[in-house]
Fold:
Amino acid sequence: MRPFLIAASLLASAAPGMVMAQQPAPQPPRPMADGVLTRAEALARADRRFDAIDTDRDGRISAAERAALPQRGPRPAGDAGTPPPPPAPGGPRGFGGARMLERADTDRDGVITREEYRAQAGAAFDRQDGNKDGRIDATERQQWRDQRMERRGDRAAD
Structure:
């Protein structure tokens, strides 16, 4: 009887460990899962974009890598009742943004380092963070969109 109790107690103490070992590892929270973008999330997003553009993994975005980005062209019309496909990333307002990449090259040496790219992303975050609390919520995003649309409208009127 005694060996049975010892075996049963060992099995009972090992069972929770076996159950825990079979559970998947917890996933990190998704950026903006709560609708708020923090500065750390914005910089992590910038790092992911930089890594996607830096195809040769040398820590610099060259002119050739910028030129290899897909260009955004005119959107083709969809069939009757079918919306047109979304635009390809790239071009002036696409993946990485050509103008944003131009501005990021602060030392004008023709290449963009991770530090330059992060500084540009941080500056963009700061412009959108209206109340300077280190977080961009839906209200601040909408205000930023409205301001951009207003400026675009002003340029179109010129």
User: Anything to note?
Assistant: The chain has six helices and four strands. The chain has a mean pLDDT of 79. Residues 2-22 form the longest helix (21 residues).
